[in-house]
Amino acid sequence: MTFILGLTGGIGSGKSAASQWFENQGIQVVDADIVAREVVEKGQPALTQIRNTFGDWVLLENGELNRSALREQIFKDPSARKQLEDITHPTIRTSIVAQLNASTSPYVILVSPLLFETNQHELTNRTLLIDASEELQIHRASKRDGQNIEQIQKIILAQMSRSKKQALANDTLLNDGHLDHLYEQLKALHLKYLAQSELS
C-alpha cells in the first residue's frame, strides 16, 4: 500500500514551495486545488449540477464556470457554500483517491489547503503543516496575488485557525521566509517519509 502524506498550510504559508521541493525529489503530488478546478470544467457533471442549483448566472458566456461571481456569493452566504461543497466535495474526493492510487513514486503527497476542513486528512497516513505567522502570510499573498489585505484576511478567517491546524498535524514546519531553512527541514522529513513508506 502506498504511503500518503497530506501537506497543508494557509494562504501564503509556503505550501507551494514545499510541494515543488518534494516534486523535485521525484515524489508525485496530487493537488486538491487542481482537482477542484478539473471537476467543474465545461462538460463535467458537477458543473451541470452547480448550474441547476444556482442558476445560469454561475456560467460565463462561453459556458465555463464564473468563478469570481460564485466565490463572491459563497463568501456572502454560508448556505450557498454548503450547497456548493455538497456538489463538489464527493467528486473531488473520488478523483483524488484515483490519482493517489495510480502513484508510482516511493510515497505520494496530497496537497490541500483544506486538508483538515474537508476531512481529506483521512485519506493520508501522516500530515505535514507548513506554518507561517499571519503577518508573513498577508505580506506574501498580497505580493504574489495582488489581492488587497482585507481580502486576504477574509480568506485567513475562513480557513481553520493556525493553532487548530498545529494541534491536528503530525509534523509542523515553520516557514519563516528563508527558503534554505525550509528546504533543510524538508530534507530531514523526506528521509523520514522514505523510511516510513518502506514499512507501509
3D structure, described in words:
- With 200 residues, this protein is an alpha/beta fold.
- The protein has 2 domains: 1-27 and 105-194, 3-Layer(aba) Sandwich (Rossmann fold), CATH 3.40.50.300; 35-104, 3-Layer(aba) Sandwich (Rossmann fold), CATH 3.40.50.300.
- The protein contains 9 helices and 5 strands; from the N terminus they run βαβααααββαααβα.
- The protein has a 5-stranded parallel sheet, sandwiched between helices.
- α1 packs across α9, α3 (45-54) packs antiparallel against α5 (78-101) and α6 (134-145) crosses α7.
- The longest helix has 24 residues, at 78-101.
Largest sheet: 5 strands, parallel
Summarize the amount of helix as a percent range: 55-70%
Count of discrete structural domains: 2
Query: Mind telling me which CATH architecture of the largest domain this is?
Result: 3-Layer(aba) Sandwich
Distance between the termini: 6 Å
Output the CATH homologous superfamily of the largest domain: P-loop containing nucleotide triphosphate hydrolases
Strand order of the largest sheet: 2-3-1-4-5
Low-confidence stretches: none
Give me the number of helical elements.
Answer: 9
Brief descriptors of the model:
5 strands; five-stranded parallel sheet; 9 helices; alpha/beta; 12% strand; 200 residues; 2 domains; Rossmann fold; globular; 56% helix
